[in-house]
Amino acid sequence: MKEFNIVLAGVGGQGTLLAAEALGIAAVKDGLNVRVSEIHGMAQRGGTVVSTVRIGENVLASTVLEGQADILLGFEPLETLRNLKYASEKTLVLMNTERIAPTELAAKNIQYPDVEEIVRKIRSFTQKVMLVDAPKLAKKAGSNLAQNVVLLGALAGTGLMPVKTESLVSAVEELVPQKHLDTNIKAFELGCASIEETEEKT
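The chain above was modelled as a monomer; its predicted structure follows.
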């Protein structure tokens, strides 16, 4: 495999960095060349966070060029929209439907757009859009904080990842505190199953 690019876009406090780290660890476990980076933003709660994971033998730098993402993993709809520059018609956009209104919208008294409107805009870049109700699945797993692991499970469920699902699970086991492990593994499995069910319906 020459090159596989994943861009993760979200808001500080959503666990984007842990998700990127888990992808990096999984790639190393599978003996793949990988580069992980946080492009910009603060990992503080509420700030914009964008991370990139690049896997493959051709990968030297950690940044993804515009239009070169294979997968755009959106932890938050508006942040997904802001990072569509990385997408092209070949990109799969996998997006959490939970909206977290950025402070600047409230400050400027701008209304947060409907998720349907955001999806329409995404479809002008790519028809490959999958939505995940991460809060619902995380709650079902036992903790709202496990949304990032739900999204990692969904990512595995697409069957597009160059890393093995078991390697990703193993990476999650390394990164998550022992006391929260069962919840997170369940969150991963629910995320994975939700995508498989979606694909069966289409």
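The longest strand covers residues 4-11.
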